[in-house]
């Protein structure tokens, strides 16, 4: 296999892994990232190794019990090239930074900026975990710091549409954690625009799902329903069964916000029941 073929196959595995993470198929994502890493390592492609490591961080954040989700055999018999996924998210971030520093001069700056996005993700997740009982928002000071970090690299990451959109979604997550739900909605919808332009289907649906969550938290039921319908549309386009079920369940819960009408209560019950039917489908 020629180097360019290996590189292209590794990028393909990485793209598929990102889609699997967005679709909450974490076992598949683990295997795809492992495969992508093996291929990138075989040709010493530090740019790819950096990006694969960054996706590994999101896998660890979204699935903190990864070692339980993935069959034990995969971890116990993991080769050296798989071992990065058994590290902590902080360790994986350091791997990514080292790969960025080892990359050629042309790639080094943008890769280092991409690492900033994921550093914000790690810090934000750790702060949310450490919130005291009864607290629901991160400190305003830290929220401002995270926003500033992301704003400072905005121009640079605009050259990479996938990461530009991910940065917007991360900005949305920061705003959500800080209690600024309207700003969060705007960032999620901006991420959706970028993802839509580049046809990242599972990512588009996740953006709209997040936008629905932000509008719901902001007590804007109409906007939340509109957003969750968009999420459902793109999950259907992507044939994402888990996402479709989640969308219907979220729609059901949105309808019960505030003072629901009898029609909203009836529709909510129907949507919840339909979600359960989809969830209970035996694996094909």
The total strand number stands at 0
Q: What's the shape?
A: globular
The percentage helix is: over 70%
Number of helices: 15
Rg on CA atoms, Å: 19 Å
Mean pLDDT: 91
Largest sheet: none
The residue ranges in which pLDDT falls below 50 over 5 or more consecutive positions are 78-82
Give the oligomer, counting copies of the same chain as homo and different chains as hetero.
single chain
Sheet/helix structural class? mainly alpha
Proportion in β-strands: under 5%
Secondary-structure element series? HHHHHHHHHHHHHHH
**N-to-C span:** 34 Å
Write the layout of secondary structure elements.
Blueprint: H1 3-22, H2 26-42, H3 46-62, H4 66-69, H5 72-76, H6 89-102, H7 105-129, H8 140-152, H9 154-157, H10 161-178, H11 181-197, H12 201-217, H13 221-237, H14 241-255, H15 262-279
């Amino acid at each position: 296999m020629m180097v360019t073929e290996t590189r292209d196959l590794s990028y393909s595995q990485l793209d598929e892994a990102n889609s699997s993470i967005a679709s909450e198929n974490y076992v598949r994502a683990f295997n795809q990232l492992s495969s992508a890493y093996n291929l990138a390592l075989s040709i010493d492609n530090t740019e790819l190794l950096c990006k694969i490591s960054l996706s590994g961080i999101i896998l660890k954040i979204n699935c903190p019990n990864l070692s339980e989700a993935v069959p034990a055999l995969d971890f116990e018999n993991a080769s050296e090239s798989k071992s990065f996924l058994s590290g902590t998210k902080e360790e994986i971030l350091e791997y990514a930074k080292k790969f960025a520093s080892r990359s050629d001069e042309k790639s080094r700056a943008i890769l280092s900026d991409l690492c900033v996005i994921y550093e914000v993700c790690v810090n934000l997740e750790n702060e949310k975990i450490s919130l005291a009982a009864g607290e629901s928002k991160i400190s305003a000071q830290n929220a401002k710091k995270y926003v500033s970090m992301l704003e400072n690299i905005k121009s640079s990451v605009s050259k990479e549409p996938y990461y530009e959109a991910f940065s917007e979604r991360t900005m949305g997550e920061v705003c959500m954690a800080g209690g600024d739900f309207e700003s969060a909605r705007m960032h999620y919808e901006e991420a959706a625009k970028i993802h839509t332009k580049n046809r990242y289907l599972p990512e588009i649906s996740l953006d709209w799902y997040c936008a629905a969550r932000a509008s719901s938290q902001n007590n804007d039921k109409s906007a939340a329903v509109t957003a969750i319908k968009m999420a459902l549309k793109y999950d259907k386009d992507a044939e994402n069964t888990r996402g479709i079920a989640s969308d219907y369940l979220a729609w059901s819960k949105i309808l019960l916000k505030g003072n629901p009408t009898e029609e909203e209560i009836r529709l909510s019950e129907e949507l919840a029941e339909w979600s359960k039917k989809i969830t209970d489908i035996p694996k094909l």
